Amino acid sequence: MEIELKLRLCDPSLGEKIISDPIIEKIRVGEPFQVNFETRHYDTRRGNLMDVGLAYRIRKEGERYIACVKGGGASFEGLHRRFEYSVPVEGFIPDINVFAGTPIFSILWQVAGEEELITLFSMVFTRISTELHVDGTIMEMSLDRGGITAGNKKEEICELELELKSGDTAHILKLGEELAEKYPLVAETRSKFQRGLALLGVENKWNEKNCKT
């Protein structure tokens, strides 16, 4: 289960300042590191995966390719919860069979079967991440900056994510509140996937509550 708080930066120039803020410095473990991401989202031509609340992507993380299926979650005031299944792959070649052996495979097969998977939209962004420890809770803070492209439409990505690795969700919420008091941050209620669907004009077709695992 993925649990993360998403906060949109109203002033993109403040990203590095937030990463190096004294609040973060006190709880940071190790130095921040940067990774470049390229992501492509897929579905059948009929949108079978969207219909049941699933999102399928392949992401290039540095030199690695990771296929991932997400869904079955919800978001409230920027806090997102959803299941996630990830497997390493060879490149941008969509194939639901790579998830064979995971709990989500039977649903993928029932929904998409052998239907062709096409690219919905793509995104390219840079992520600066750092690990944080607070009273036994471990989280990762990431600053994402880049853009989403769907056909001839584009939208900027500039957001801060606090992802729970282990421990208490309350520490994520508290840290988010502290940062929002100092910087112009607002809760990002939509995932990057939802924002891509909005560019395509099909956001209403997708509802995570339709996913039954």
Tell me briefly what this model is:
The chain has 213 residues and is of the alpha+beta class. An 8-stranded antiparallel barrel has the order 1-5-4-3-2-6-7-8.
Q: What does it look like?
A:
The protein has 213 residues and is of the alpha+beta class. It is 21% helix and 50% strand. The protein has an 8-stranded antiparallel barrel with strand order 1-5-4-3-2-6-7-8. A hairpin with a 2-residue loop joins strand 7 and strand 8. The longest helix has 14 residues.
Second rung of CATH, namely the architecture: Beta Barrel
Q: What's the arrangement of strands in the largest beta sheet?
A: 1-5-4-3-2-6-7-8
Number of domains: 1
CATH superfamily: Hypothetical Protein Pfu-838710-001
Topology:
Blueprint: E1 2-9, H1 15-19, H2 22-25, E2 28-44, H3 48-51, E3 54-61, E4 64-76, E5 79-89, H4 105-112, E6 117-134, E7 137-150, E8 153-166, H5 169-182, E9 185-187, H6 192-200
Antiparallel strand pairs: 1-5, 1-8, 1-9, 2-3, 2-6, 3-4, 4-5, 6-7, 7-8
